[in-house]
Amino acid sequence: MKPGSPEWKNRVNDLARAELNQPLRPYYMSFADEEGFRGAVIVEARGPVTALAIANILGINPGGQVVTIEIPPGSPMLSTPEAWNRLLSRQDVENFWGGAKRLGDLTESEVDQLFHDSPN
């Protein structure tokens, strides 16, 4: 299915409609292209499709491919509301959470700390 095709648009619409019944949750989105990191965004949404739609509506989608991760309760990312609803640079990510690694470069322990463990 090619992005932008009628089939793709129908699928996105179906997924967005299905998400409307879900509760609001925080999502972290990391954007990149062939040249590397383009930015990160945290928004509250009902799912990954609506999270991307919110980033588009807010004008904070820098383009490229996106990886979207639901932020679980207790994550340190939840304690930085000033980082939400804006485009974050690599330096912003470093300043807020002390690191700006690619997801694939994180150790298992770092993934647990960032996305699962509480800050205490």
Distinctive features:
single chain; 120 residues; alpha+beta; three-stranded antiparallel beta sheet; 4 helices; globular
Description:
The chain has 120 residues and is α+β, with helices and mostly antiparallel strands. The chain has one domain. Helices cover 34% and strands 21% of the residues. The chain is built from four helices and three strands, in the order αββαβαα. The protein has helices spanning 6-19, 48-58, 90-97, 108-115, and strands at 25-33, 36-45, 65-70. The protein has a three-stranded antiparallel beta sheet. The longest helix is centred in the first third of the chain and has 14 residues, at 6-19. The chain is globular, with a radius of gyration of 15 Å.
List the helices and strands and how they pair.
Layout: H1 6-19, E1 25-33, E2 36-45, H2 48-58, E3 65-70, H3 90-97, H4 108-115
Antiparallel strand pairs: 1-2, 1-3
